[in-house]
Design goal:
heterotrimer; A alpha+beta (189); B alpha+beta (1013); C alpha+beta (109); A: 189 residues; alpha+beta; Gyrase A, domain 2; Alpha-Beta Plaits; 2 domains; 11 strands; 21% helix; B: alpha+beta; Arc Repressor Mutant, subunit A; seven-stranded mixed β-sheet; six-stranded mixed β-sheet; 25 helices; 28% strand
Chain lengths: 189, 1013, 109
């Protein structure tokens, strides 16, 4: 099997923050009744905890992201996704759920640097409230980044993870680079 | 007519709190090299060089000079910069001087001093308000050839830039608790008070410096001079973690729910293309404090538009802030005490003040007394009846304010400082619905605290502070500002029960009451009223408003549009109240009943660049790329936008035209094998116990009867019955379907599925997932397609029996996990192969490599379209336009008769949908083999109700078919399928009609032998 | 620029993160309905000056449709609630009544 490639193909660029391809990431879409204890225990059986609304447990590569009241994004290693899909599908086979491997559908960026600078870069493109109190590490915001949908969260005070659809990876990379032009720091956050 | 050489305005030997005399800056005006100082505005630097005449008015091209010292400036508009940095209509009064600044005056030809257009000034009595409406109506034919070209030549303010903007711009979104707009002493005080409650505060000021007017007016706060107090208060604000401050940032619009637009100018004062020039702040504020100050009003006296007539406060500003004397001898004309400050300031600077003409019968307040004590002549009950001088003030004719304009004295002067009182800058208050109330004593409209703009929670989202409330004394100003800050913080639940800091104590001179004066002199005859300007930029005079009123205009909004009062770039900041007052007098109703016109954003002009932000050039729109995009790009792809996607239209080889490339691709596919990137096709997984029932509602066909492993072509209609999308549906297992949509339809159809599931059939158990981007999809089509796939060692049987037409299978191809669908949009033996997007490019490369020995030919969307048209397959967006039902397209076979309901079924039962005269799909074959123009209409006999030629059909798809060597087309024709063999005439623009025969839309392989192979 | 709180994910959404869906609580009429019923369902929409119930989708977020009760004149938002109800729930009706004395839901007399 040929190696999978990411849409960003390993790109790293720097403005007043560093923008980096986060590499291959396993992502599994699960649509199910998240209030159903059978769903929760099947998840736990596969090694994943249920996040609170608009939050993330774990991290890229091993975690679960709350997408909507009946949708989770399970984060795992890219090459383990198929096996986890099979495990979950088996464990949930009696329930009304939809499990799909969507590991190739998105691009993932890591934005790092000074934490307030990272918030600034996002604030130039998204209407989300980026104040620390509104978006502390662990909280996920699905929102709009310029003209495309995106989701981001702070993995730590100084690093954000940003996800967008694969087809617009180039657009998002150019956007981020543009607004991170050195000299255009706002100094707001 | 040329301007005489005598300098009338000049730089004073000392003074100027904002300028740095050790840093001279070179700039040019109309090509003339000049020098100013760091800290100057373009206006102050021009005045310092004696440049009193700075432009010409819009309608009469009258000479115009600087009137104000701020963003309300109507006259001093210039073209700034050159080439990619050129900007028209820039206010010289807010333009900070920088080294190398180039400015040009506007609205004149051939030169500022000698302007041919000024002739219209002499004709002004023939150009009354409503002139355009009245004069150019007849004769009708003259409009197009005479009036419009002439008006267009002279219309427009300034000239548009001709080059692409060399700068870039950005947006910035922030959420704050309290936004304070205005960085004068009120804004600073309100921000301090709000910050003390614990709220997050953003304080913005439009100028480059803080403190507003207070330092100029000699205000003292807590025993300190206003400048000193401002400095120390800002310092303590800076140290607070919950306060942020920006200068050069204007509040331009207050919108619903606390959404505020701010316009920040980053590099206008120091051009630098490497960083954004402007930043548009999109603020979501919990509470807004408008500390926007007040704007002085001109007085309406004859000749008040002469260069040299300025607002009294502006005269003071130029002296104090920039060390510039607007004139040697300045006559003050006023109806209030504030203008006396200007007299005293001028006197202190050693400049002449020959008279203070006070319209009031008595002038005995502390400031008037101080003026008299300083030896100045105060003439109560007086006004100005005319200004003598052509391009600037030379002599002032004095009259009695009560009279009809008899000249009682004439004074030599080169500057007139006028003050008609102050109006709170309440514009922002009104943007989102705040109301004003009329204050008789101060003769102004002020924000009505009882009727504020309200937010999402239905309570006040805005507080006015300082002189924006109408407060005119430092003490009251600071008190209201502090209260506004506290109220804003507390409204958000901050700092309740906490002890609040002391209100700063302000002191300045007490004022005696002003006296509303709307016309000088009070009984000025018509000839004088026709020389008393209200709107300097648009040339609206007192007599114009009177004429509008006489002609029956009563609504202030109508008068505004009829006379253009307040419709210039300054949006009536100076003229609004004066115009209302004239109208109210003419109509005989109180001003508060006349009301104001509607204040709309933006408060000050915002550059288009700032509005566009990052969305320009490559980033104008998102471009969606498939996993195989780079290959196409490297192999001659001629791109076609499909929604936001880019798809190869055709791949041109060296020296080949696009048309030839399309023909080559079609023939190669039909005779051998072609390769298509079909990744953009929408892919929606629908799963659940009710998925079958759900799909039966969405599609006109029956999807529940589809067998796992099989595919079915399906149609989707809107509730209105019209065809909206089509595609192949595959049943993956008992309760799972994969629905393919059109490339442009994936998001729309996904959204529509979610909408029905969430809002209508929420008890149905079905989940939808949009997996469009998870998969690359590659079409391999042509007689040798199976051979190519077999080269890659498939793990599954791709033979005719194992995988017949309209079946699918999973497996591996070239070691890549794939799902193979036997579906065909070309009419050939065809496989569509889906693989994980991350391996899509690898699959493409392997297929291309494996196909080489079969002459595999990548083909683009145009070849795809030609081949589908040869087969008579419809295309959403070509054969459909939102008014076409499947029955029009001969797709009855895809509309289930066995279902009680599906989306669109009820609509298709409407009478008109069964009309036998509906236009229906047919093939069209030109008699001469040529290609019909797209969209061409077939003419019919007779004319319709509008006297237009009747039509009986139109072309929906038309191509040159390389397979048939002739033009083919599809079209919708009245009773089309019943008229096989008939010949229609299609109209062609500027050419002979083309004759075409009605035929079957299937031009190629009607039996489908090839696709079933 | 409206700000509406998505009742599903709790996010205070900027209007640009939402897609509007027009009047809420419409009843679908399909095959078997009269021309008048069908016309009402398909085309006739309330456009009040005042209290209004609307459908919105949190399209740049959790993707869920929800309902908003708001005032088209003052832009006050009385509340947002589930899209999966046929009429505004009692707490929403109370919230409106508290602010607009005399108002009542169309099905109540």
């Amino acid at each position: 099997m040929p190696e999978s490639v990411t849409p960003l193909d390993g790109a790293t660029c720097s403005g007043f923050v560093t923008i980096k391809d986060a590499g291959l990431a396993g992502m599994i879409l699960l649509r199910a009744d998240l209030g159903d204890t059978d769903v929760v225990s099947a998840l736990q059986g596969a090694g994943f905890d249920l996040p609170d609304p608009a939050e993330l447990v774990g991290e890229l590569g091993n975690g679960a992201l709350w997408m909507s009241p009946d949708e989770l994004m399970i984060l795992c290693a890219h090459d383990e996704a198929e096996a986890i899909v099979a495990t979950l599908a088996e464990a949930l086979s009696e329930l009304h759920v939809l499990v799909a491997n969507v590991s190739d559908a998105r691009a993932v960026f890591r934005l790092s640097g000074n934490g307030s600078a990272v918030r600034e870069v996002l604030a130039k493109l998204s209407p989300a409230d980026l104040r620390q109190a509104a978006l502390p590490p662990g909280r996920v915001r699905r929102t709009r980044l310029a003209q495309v949908p995106a989701a981001f969260w702070f993995a730590s005070d100084d690093e954000a993870v940003l996800i967008c659809f694969r087809s617009v990876a180039g657009y998002v990379l150019e956007l981020l680079l543009k607004v991170a032009t050195p000299g255009s720091e706002v100094g707001h956050f | 007519m040329a301007l005489e050489g005598r300098i009338v305005s000049r730089r004073l030997p000392k003074g100027g709190r904002l300028i740095d005399r050790s840093r001279p800056l070179g700039f040019s005006f109309n090509g003339k090299e000049m020098r100013g100082y760091a800290g100057d505005t373009l206006a102050s630097a021009l005045l310092a060089k004696g440049q009193v005449l700075v432009g010409r008015s819009f309608k009469y091209h009258r000479p115009r000079g600087v009137v104000t010292s701020g963003s309300e400036e109507p006259n001093a508009l210039v073209g700034l910069g050159r080439d990619g940095s050129f900007e028209p209509n820039v206010r010289a009064t807010t333009t900070e001087l920088f080294e190398g600044l180039e400015a040009r005056s506007q609205n004149h030809w051939p030169s500022l001093e000698y302007d041919v257009g000024a002739i219209s000034s002499m004709l002004s009595r023939f150009l009354p308000s409503g002139f355009y409406y009245k004069t150019f109506l007849w004769p009708r034919a003259f409009w197009k050839h005479v009036y419009e070209p002439a008006i267009r030549l002279s219309a427009g303010l300034g000239r548009p830039p001709r080059r692409r903007d060399a700068d870039h711009y950005e947006h910035f979104n922030v959420t704050v608790d309290v936004l304070v707009i205005g960085g004068g002493i009120s804004g600073i005080s309100a921000a301090s008070a709000a910050a003390e409650t614990g709220a997050d505060v953003l304080l913005v000021e439009q100028a480059s410096t803080w403190g507003g007017r207070a330092p100029i007016d000699g205000v003292r706060i807590d025993g300190l001079g206003a400048e000193e107090w401002t400095g120390s208060t800002l310092k303590s604000l800076q140290s607070l973690p919950n306060v942020r401050m920006r200068t050069r940032t204007s509040g331009v619009g207050i919108h619903d729910h606390g959404y505020v637009l701010l316009h920040e100018r980053l590099t206008d004062h120091a051009p630098d293309h490497s960083v954004p020039r402007h930043r548009l702040w999109k603020v979501r504020a919990g509470q807004i404090v408008a500390a926007t100050g007040a704007i002085e009003r001109p007085l309406s006296f004859p000749g008040n538009d002469r260069p040299g007539c300025m607002l009294a406060s502006a005269v003071r500003d130029y002296v104090v802030n920039y060390g510039v004397a607007p004139g040697e001898r300045t006559v003050i004309v006023t109806n209030n005490d504030d203008a006396y400050r200007t007299a005293l300031t001028l006197r202190e600077a050693g400049l002449g003040v020959p008279a203070i003409l006070d319209a009031r019968q008595e002038a005995t307040g502390p400031l008037a007394t101080a003026a008299r004590d300083a030896g100045l002549t105060v003439r109560p009950g007086c006004g100005i009846v005319d200004i003598v001088g052509r391009d600037r003030v030379e002599r002032v004719q004095v009259c009695s304010q009560d009279g009809d304009g008899e000249v009682i004295d004439e004074i030599h002067a080169d500057c007139v400082a006028m003050s008609g009182g102050w109006s709170p800058a309440a514009h922002l208050w009104c943007h989102a619905g705040g109301k004003l109330s009329w204050n008789d004593e101060a003769a102004h409209f002020a924000p009505d605290p009882a009727r504020p703009p309200t937010g999402a929670d239905g309570v006040a989202m805005m507080q006015a502070a300082g002189s924006a409330t109408g407060a005119m004394h430092a003490g009251a100003v600071l008190e209201s500002a502090h209260a506004a800050g506290v109220a804003a913080g507390q409204a958000l639940g901050n700092g309740r029960g906490r002890k609040h800091g002391r209100v700063p104590e302000g002191e300045d001179e007490a004022h005696h009451p002003m006296e509303p004066v709307w016309l000088v002199p009070a009984r000025a005859p018509y000839a004088k009223r026709a020389k008393s300007w209200l709107d300097f930029q648009n040339d609206v005079k007192v007599s114009d408003i009177e004429l509008a009123a006489r002609e029956g205009y009563e609504s202030v909004e109508h008068v505004k549009r009829y006379t253009t009062l307040g419709m210039a770039t300054d949006q009536g900041k100076l003229s609004n109240i004066n115009g209302l007052a004239i109208l109210s007098r003419e109509l005989g109703v109180p001003i508060e009943e006349v009301g104001t016109t509607t204040f709309r954003p933006p408060y000050v002009p915002v550059t288009m660049g700032a509005i566009a932000g990052e969305a320009r050039g490559e980033l104008f729109q998102p471009v969606r790329k498939t996993p195989i995009h780079e290959w196409h790009d490297a192999n001659g792809a001629h791109w076609e936008p499909v929604g936001h996607w880019r798809r190869p239209y055709a791949y041109t080889r060296h020296g080949e035209s696009v048309h030839d490339a399309v023909a080559r691709e079609v023939l190669a596919t039909r005779s051998g094998v072609g390769l298509l990137d079909a990744s953009t096709l929408g892919k929606l997984v629908v799963k659940g116990p009710d998925a079958a029932r759900f799909l039966d509602m969405l599609y006109t066909n029956m999807m529940s009867t589809l067998k796992p492993g099989k595919c079915r072509y399906g149609l989707m209609c809107s509730e209105n019955g019209f065809l909206i999308d089509d595609g192949v549906v595959a049943r993956l297992d008992d309760d799972t379907w994969l629905c393919h949509t059109t490339s442009g339809g994936a998001d729309r159809i996904h959204a529509s599925m979610e909408e029905w599931l969430q809002t209508e059939w929420w008890d149905w158990k079905a989940y939808v997932a949009n997996v469009t981007e998870q998969f690359a999809q590659i079409g391999v089509a042509g007689p040798r397609a199976r051979d190519v796939l077999n080269e890659l060692g498939p793990s599954m049987d791709l033979g005719k029996e194992a995988l017949p037409f309209m079946a699918w299978t999973d497996g591996a191809l070239g070691n890549i996990p794939v799902r193979v669908f036997r579906i065909s949009f070309s009419g050939e033996l065809s496989f569509e192969i889906a693989a994980p997007a991350g391996q899509g490019r690898a699959l493409w490369d392997r297929l291309f490599e494996a196909g080489k020995s079969f002459g595999i030919t990548p083909y683009g969307t145009e070849a795809l379209h030609v081949m589908r048209a040869e087969k008579g397959f419809i295309m959403i967006g070509d054969e459909t336009d939102g008014t076409v039902i499947p029955q029009d397209l001969g797709l009855h076979w895809a509309i289930s008769k066995g279902k009680d309901d599906f989306l669109g079924k009820r609509a298709q039962e409407r009478e008109h949908m069964a009309d036998p005269l509906r236009w229906r799909l047919v093939g069209l074959e030109t008699l001469d083999g040529s290609v019909l123009p797209d969209g061409a209409y077939a003419a019919d006999e007779g004319v319709n109700a509008n006297g237009q030629r009747r039509t009986q059909g139109r072309v929906t798809s038309t191509y040159h078919s390389p397979t048939l060597g002739r033009g083919i087309a599809m079209g919708l024709v009245e009773r089309g399928p019943d008229r096989m063999g008939e010949i229609l005439e299609f109209s062609v623009i500027d050419g002979e009609p083309i004759r075409a025969r009605i035929v079957s839309p299937v031009f190629h392989d009607p039996e489908g032998e090839k696709q079933n192979a | 620029m409206l700000i509406l709180t998505c009742p599903y994910c709790g996010v205070r959404c900027d209007e640009t993160e939402l897609a509007p869906g027009g009047e809420a609580h419409l009843k679908r009429f399909g095959p078997g309905s009269s021309d008048e019923e069908f016309e009402d369902y398909l085309f006739m929409r309330a456009n009040p000056n005042g209290v209004h119930f609307e459908r919105w989708r949190h399209v740049y977020g959790c993707g869920k449709w929800f309902h908003a009760a708001r005032n088209t004149v003052t832009l006050e938002v009385y509340g947002t609630y589930s899209a999966q109800v046929h009429a505004p729930p009692q707490e929403i009706r109370d919230a409106v009544s508290n602010r607009v004395p005399g108002w009542h839901w169309k099905d109540e007399s």
